[in-house]
Amino acid sequence: MDWTHLASAILLGMLIVATWLASIAQANERTQKSQEDAAFIERLIGQMTLEEKADQLTQLSVLTIPTGPIEDANDPKKIGTSKAGSLLGAYGAENTRRLQHEAVQGSRLHIPQLFSFDVIHGFRTIFPVPLAEASAWDPYLSQRTARAAAVEATASGLHWTFAPMVDIARDSRWGRVIEGAGEDPFLGAALAASRVRGFRGEGPPDTSSILSTAKHFVAYGAAEGGLDYNISDLSERTLEEVYLTPFRAAVEAGVDTIMPGFNEVDSMPMHANRKLLKQKLRDEWDFQGVVVSDWAGIRELIPHGVASVPREAARLALNATVDIDMVSGDYNAELPALVRSGQLSQDAIDGAVRRVLQAKQRLGLFDDPYRYSDPTREKTQLLQPPTRALAREAAQKSIVLLKNDDALLPLSKNLRKLVVVGALANDGVSSLGSWSADGRASESITVLEGIKRAVSPMTEVVYVPAASPGSTDISGIEEVQRAVVDADVIVAALGETADMSGEARSRTSLGLPGAQDALVAQLIKTGKPVVVVLMNGRPLAIPTVDEHVPAILEAWFLGTEMGHAVADVLFGDVNPSGKLPITFPRTVGQVPIYLARKNTGRPPSGTNAYASSYIDSKWTALYPFGHGLSYTTFTYGTPRLSKQRLAFDETLTVQVDVQNSGQRAGEETVQLYLRQDVASITRPVRMLRGFSKVRLAPGESTTVSFLLDQDDWALLNHDLLRFVESGIFTVFIGGTSATDNQAKFEVITSAQLTGPGSAIPRTLRD
Ligand code: NOJ
Fold first, then answer.
1. Among residues 307, 240, 323, 295, which one has the least CA distance to residue 268?
2. pTM over 0.85
3. Which of 657, 746, 660 is nearest to 705 (CA)?
């Protein structure tokens, strides 16, 4: 061997050994640190009285939100705000610094507090509401907006957000559909994981890392009748296949905390549901973090009828491993006595305290309780131009073009006269949507403002509020007729005000509220080209608008940059690319309506009157899941499969050619759905199993590939065991769930699978 080679081999060997030694040293250091951390927490727990432990498990609110039926539940004077382990709604660097000082100085053991808040879709810069952002079908976008929200919130002293809300919702009467990612567990799981990652960022000790909360565990979105807080009664299969999936994805992604729902499942309120919280979440999924009750959810075990007094409610909740009591005060008042009387074990309370203290430790608060409360940092982090730019980008990508007859859109910026109608067009509060944290209407751009800023100086923009969703007053409508006589185009902002969806905002109708139907009738009568911009927090049933209005944009509530983004799309600076994450019904009578339905023994058919359909409405959706048009068109080739027949553990590559066959550059979300044609149990007619976004110039083509494997063809058999069953599968690929573009393949072997598989879609796994 020549000497140079020998020398380099020796050097390489030394380098490998050195790296190996360094990694061992690092691992040792980490082990030592975690042992020291654990010992610190155990020492602290050893010094704490039962009362001090109960304080740590108590969260108080500094907000003035009414506590509902519970009297005096949240009287901070009763408990002493500074003694509570965490506070809800306290933010602002100076404010949290002061509160932290009181907590650290005011407690015998100087334990710092956690400051928490509902940072749902932005803190000061408000991003699209979650249902809107889900329309972008863009997990990385959701990760980026969650990150930006965390940067602002933590700069304002917050340690903890009660987001992401990952409830699947298939009944749009339920107002909280606005807070989640829609109806589908696959898309929901993707966005749940992304948002958890975005909130965490690099993770502690980085002070822009915020604790996340997956809520509301579980099936809160399955509320009967779409009535908020109502019970959910569903099969174990549906629970597993649909409602638990995004939670499992959030846990896999490392979510810090979980919040139980106000609902019951199988006659057990979630705040006392040991089977789901302890056995499923903690034992089966190995969730190590904190479970925080929802607002007074522990005291509500009394009206639920499983406890008659607060003491019993507290016992049930702690036994179900609910660690923190949000505002009912019952842990504070009852836990010490429950432990002393032997009704609760010392271990149970210590376990909860340990998890809370560990969360504080992870954030570095025992080293420096004030590390999140830095007024200088706060001054430089809120509402920054790059954050606003991200809000505009997210808003653009969240808009769904529902209809565009005769290419009415995009509009020219040089129209002579454009009439904007509808009170929502100038409603800055509604632009932000519900749960808008520290967002301010004065800092948001309304649709009217966006349009005014976008058009050329030669365009006259006339505004007629005409009708408001919140009022049945039709007196303003007459003015529309006068204003539009010489108009080139009418843009009508219609829908709901922000406070018509969200918590406690269930509706029994899904039409346009207030006098807006009358306004629509008037607009149609004018004979002028009308563009409807929908602002709403849930799917609306608007068959008349669909029938008579040529162009409809679903804009939801898009946040601080709403007006800019709507104008960007209206005037064609941006080509819309959103796709519906939830089905739009024709009438409220169709709900629940969703893509992954079962075929039934009598599938809808044009010939059989005794088939599964309605006598007074079409059975189909007004706009199906995955629907969304563009200013260009995309043409799909037939799906190509790497194999026609495969064993259960083989992988399958599905490819499809997509071409931009129109005149403008555009972005398309290519969607893949799967169906097992025959199995031992019935299967959904289509299940989303993949999506991929492509940007194409006019005339450009690309090939999109999807990799599928046993996770995609697995099912829970009748005994709820996870199996791949041999059989024929149909794969559908297109730009909507209604596509007929399909191919078939056969899985030729069966097998029982071990473990639950990953809930996070393959392309997003670490
Ligand atoms: C009640 C809501 O259900 C929950 O989502 C929220 O986090 C808490 N209130 C705290 O505001």
1. 307
2. yes
3. 657
Element (H, E) at 640: strand 640-641
Q: Which of 118, 138, 256, 294 is catalytic?
A: 294
Q: Identify whether 604 is part of a domain.
A: no
| pLDDT tens digits, 552-575 | 999 999 999 999 999 999 999 999
Residue 342 to residue 333: CA distance in whole angstroms: 16
At residue 78 the predicted structure's pLDDT band, cuts being 50, 70 and 90, is: low
Residue 294 C-alpha to ligand 1 middle, in angstroms?
6
CA 170 to centroid of ligand 1, rounded, Å:
20
User: 506 and 535 in contact (C-beta within 8 Å)?
Assistant: no
Residue 18's pLDDT is 83
Co-location of 501 and 358 in the same domain = no
Q: Which pair of tokens denotes residue 764?
A: 């997003």
Contact residues for 193 (Cβ-Cβ < 8 A; gap 6+): 139, 249, 250, 252, 253, 760, 764
291, 295, 501, best to mutate for ligand 1 pocket (most atoms within 8 Å of CB): 295
Q: Are residues 407 and 275 in the same domain?
A: no
Spacing, Cα 327 to ligand 1 middle (Å): 11
Task: Pinpoint the alpha helices (H) of 156-277.
Answer: 185-200, 236-238, 245-252, 274
Task: Please confirm, yes or no, whether 294 is among the known catalytic residues.
Answer: yes
Write out pLDDT tens, residues 88-121.
999 999 999 999 999 999 889 999 999 999 999 9
Residue nearest to atom 10 of ligand 1 (CA): 295
Look at residue 70 in the predicted model and tell me its pLDDT: 39
**Ligand 1 test: best mutation among 230, 271, 503, 506, most atoms within 8 Å of CB?**
503
Indicate whether residue 397 lines ligand 1 (CB < 6 A).
no
**What 3-state DSSP class applies to 299?**
coil
Does ligand 1 come within 6 angstroms of the Cβ of 503? yes
C-beta 295 within 6 A of ligand 1: yes
Among residues 455, 535, 519, which one has the least CA distance to residue 484?
519
Cα 647 to Cα 709: distance, rounded to the nearest angstrom: 10
d(CA 168, CA 179): 10
Q: Which position has the token pair 């550059």?
A: 665
Backbone angles phi, psi at 282, to 5 degrees: -85, -50
For ligand 1, say whether the CB of 118 is within 6 Å of any of its atoms: yes
pLDDT over 70 (residue 68) = no
Q: Is the pLDDT of residue 332 over 50?
A: yes
For the chain, the domain total comes to: 3
Paired residues of 420 in beta bridges:
463, 491
Q: 373 with 419, same domain?
A: no
What is the reported pLDDT for 605? 82
Q: Which of 179, 294, 434 to mutate to test the pocket of ligand 1 (most atoms within 8 A of CB)?
A: 294
Specify whether the CB–CB gap between 327 and 74 falls below 8 A. yes
Q: Whose CA is nearest to atom 11 of ligand 1?
A: 118
- The string of pLDDT tens digits covering residues 298-315 is 999 999 999 999 999 999
Ligand 1 center from residue 293 Cα (angstroms): 9
pLDDT of residue 730 exceeding 50: yes
Residue 608 has pLDDT above 60, yes or no: yes
pLDDT over 60 (residue 69): no
Domain holding 484: CATH number?
Answer: 3.40.50.1700
Q: What is the mean pLDDT of residues 200-227?
A: 98
Kindly give the distance from the C-alpha atom of residue 295 to the centroid of ligand 1, in angstroms, as a whole number: 6
Residues 242 and 300 in one domain: yes
Cα(683)–Cα(620) distance, rounded to whole angstroms? Answer: 19
Q: Which residues of 586-622 are buried (b: 16+ CB within 10 A; e: fewer)?
A: bbbebbbbbbbeeeeeeeeeeeeeeeebeeeeeeebb
Residue 352 sits in a domain whose CATH number is 3.20.20.300
Query: Taking 80 as the threshold, does the pLDDT of residue 593 lie above it?
Result: yes
Which of 569, 590, 611 is the endpoint of a domain? 590
What percentage of residues in the chain have a pLDDT greater than 70?
A: 98
